[in-house]
Amino acid sequence: MTSQVSSPAEQTGETAREALRAAGTTDAATTAATDGATEGTTAGERHGATEQRRGSEKEVRRLDRVIIRFAGDSGDGMQLTGDRFTSETASFGNDLSTLPNFPAEIRAPAGTLPGVSSFQLHFADHDILTPGDAPNVLVAMNPAALKANLADVPRGGEIIVNTDEFAKRAMAKVGYETSPLEDGTLDGYRVHPVPLTTLTIEALKEFGLSRKEAERSKNMFALGLLSWMYHRPTEGTEQFLRRKFAGKPDIAEANVTAFRAGWNFGETTEDFAVSYEVAPATSAFPPGTYRNISGNLALSYGLIAAARQADLPLYLGSYPITPASDILHELSRHKNFGVRTFQAEDEIAGIGAALGAAFGGSLAVTTTSGPGVALKSETIGLAVSLELPLLIVDIQRGGPSTGLPTKTEQADLLQAMYGRNGEAPVPVVAPRTPADCFDAALEAARIALTYRTPVFLLSDGYLANGSEPWRIPDVADLPDLGVSFATGPNHTLEDGTEVFWPYKRDPETLARPWAVPGTPGLEHRIGGIEKQDGTGNISYDPANHEFMVRTRQAKVDGIAVPDVAVDDPSGRARTLVLGWGSTYGPITAAVRRLRNAGETIAQAHLRHLNPFPANLGEVLGRYDRVVVPEMNLGQLALLIRARYLVDARSHTQINGMPFKAERLAAALKEAIDAQ
To answer: pTM for this one?
Structure first.
């Protein structure tokens, strides 16, 4: 996973220090107020003093983890900057977790608080689980970025400020009457005032660009500076820029030059007297080949892998919606794997086309977010009635209605469980990390194909846009999802006639046969009106309807899912924290903190939400108190209380952001102490 760091200063003929130097003491100010060692100890406990060495030029200090946040206007390229820094960090071998955060507007008013876009990256030399509670380093490209993010930076943290943007008009837009760089607002922080815009324009003089064109590269200058500061590899970013702007070689070289200028500025300026080294996380990963991956990308690859393992064409019927659109974009690139994507005119058409593809023998998928699920609900009910395999991928976001399109939430669980007319049970699967989206897609496909049912896959914006290292699996280790289509008659009438009954069920799974249209002799009725058991003929018989409703419910209830695993090292815990979906990282980090402080607490996390694991009731009964953290108003807790008569206590948050481990640990400590 590691790659050698090369210096842009060397590439431009300037003297530069050795890229990776064995380093010295931990900088306590830089590493304070983070998620802890394995996100379970305090910064002071983890960051003990180590040997310090000084080179001939600048001091290098070794850290075990760093949290960096890039912030600026939505047009400043902060997501690209963060993504490039993340890619180089992944290639270097650090464990990492990211949190992109951007406005819903395509281009919010420049210089305003609603227009601030940020990208937070937590990287370490050990196993980590979250993007971090608070940034150690904030790169603020303008006054709005500073004001929107300053409250999150702990005292003693580093702030790199683009001083060129702190004009009176820009400061007035966000309510600064005086300059925060001069009025004491930043006292207690280590501030690095850098005229990023001016330095970028100066570095690009030879290219003959207009001021506006040159300014666009200031994010690359900032990226170069941070790459020097934390010894990140550089070759990958330079190659990326040349590929991205292959049709405009002058623009490509201008961005490369700005990137190198940022590196060289860090190398030569006296304001940055120290750089930092975070070693690869060699002990955090099992042997294998790794890559950085986002949740939506992992989910896309999981869908492709599922189709290949089932030997079926993959069909996606979708309508673009944030934050699910990237799945449509990605799958459209993979026609070579038998993937067909259809961008429909609306959500209803998208799922209608997908259900038609399922009827035709494809692994069918529709992707959306919460508002789209509401529109698709009638067709989901149709899929329940037809008993066809269909994956409904819901990348949850803040609601109701349009809500918070670019912010995360877990508030669609009850909609997935009950958001249809009549008794229409649908299995529900939820990934817990960005990389886990790959495995969750395979699991959702297994259930859909085996039991002939639509399946919900509940991801969310935090998982979709966040990223982490992913171990690329061996194809031989992937599950066999092969299916058998009906090929001929499956029932013999009393007079000896052999016929095809479309609702004659597998006695083990209760799945009905899957008959591809056009197969001779397998003609049968299709539609949403209730079917007669076995024959599939239209039926209004009350007894038959009750039988079919109960049978469909029994099919979902009987789905084989693994038992829920409980993490209770001491075996003496009286409090269990139960989570689902993307709360896994913050919950695990909070639990580690408590255990390192001497507390006993158990943890369990659900992937399968319908049906629940068979052992869940027994697990819940072992503990005096069950706490359920959720990014909603307590939807899983409601289901747990109703199903198991357990006094599950909710700890909820619905601010569009993931839980912070420190605050969650405090809430769990209160639960322990209340016993």
So the answer is: 0.91
Please report, for residues 155, 360, 498, the alpha-carbon distance to residue 519 in angstroms, rounded to integers and kept in the order given: 71, 11, 16
Cis? peptide before 389, omega within 30° of 0: no
Q: Is 285 helix (H, G, I), strand (E, B) or coil?
A: coil
Confidence band for 377, pLDDT divided at 50, 70 and 90: very high
- N-to-C CA span, the chain: 46
Determine the pLDDT at residue 85. 97
- pLDDT attached to residue 668: 97
Residues 438-492: tens digit of each pLDDT: 999 999 999 999 999 999 999 999 999 999 999 999 999 999 999 999 999 999 9
Which burial class, exposed, middle or buried, applies to 68 when counting CB atoms under 10 A from its CB (0-12, 13-18, 19+)?
Answer: buried
**For the purposes of burial, counting CB atoms within 10 Å of the CB of 587, is it exposed (0-12), middle (13-18) or buried (19 or more)?**
buried
Degrees (nearest 5) of the Cα angle 12, 18, 19? Answer: 80
pLDDT tens figures, 264-300: 999 999 999 999 999 999 888 999 999 999 999 999 9
Q: Is the dihedral of CA 665, 670, 673, 675 positive or negative?
A: negative
Which amino acid is present at 600? Answer: T
Dihedral over Cα of 568, 572, 578, 579: its sign? negative
Residue 10 host element (H or E): helix 8-11
- Which residue ranges make up each domain of the chain? 59-278, 293-477, 484-539+554-560, 566-674
Cβ–Cβ < 8 Å for 307, 337: yes
Mean pLDDT of 223-229: 98
Query: Rounded CA gap, 407 and 244, in Å?
Result: 28
Distances (CA, A) of 244 to 100, 251, 530: 21, 10, 54
Q: What is the pLDDT of residue 283?
A: 87
User: Is residue 592 pLDDT above 50, yes or no?
Assistant: yes
- Distance (Å) of CA 90 to CA 248, 260, 367, 600, 605: 28, 20, 28, 34, 27
| Stretch 17-24: mean pLDDT | 29
* Per-residue tokens: 243: 């590929």
| CATH no. for 293-477 | 3.40.50.970
Cβ-contact 293, 434 below 8 angstroms: yes
Contact 182, 166 (CB under 8 A): no
Q: Do domains 59-278 and 293-477 have the same CATH topology?
A: no
Listed in sequence order, the DSSP H helices in 558-656 are 584-596, 616-620, 635-644
Residue 244 has pLDDT above 80, yes or no: yes
| Residue 50: predicted pLDDT | 38
Residue 37 has pLDDT above 70, yes or no: no
Residues 59-278: name the CATH superfamily: Pyruvate-ferredoxin oxidoreductase, PFOR, domain III (3.40.920.10)
Contact 43, 21 (CB under 8 A): no
Angle at 649 between CA 427 and CA 323, to 5 degrees: 45
Fold (topology level) of 566-674: Rossmann fold (3.40.50)
User: Percentages helix, strand, coil for the chain, rounded to the nearest 5?
Assistant: 35, 20, 45
Burial of 646 (0-12, 13-18, 19+ CB in 10 A): buried
pLDDT at 191 over 50: yes
User: How many alpha carbons lie under 13 Å from residue 510 in its C-beta half-sphere?
Assistant: 17
**Of 97-111, 314-328, 508-522, the least confident:** 97-111
Tokens 């300026």 map to which residue?
269
Task: Count CA atoms within 13 Å of residue 434 on its CB side.
Answer: 26
**Residue 480: Cβ-neighbour burial (10 angstroms; 0-12, 13-18, 19+):** exposed
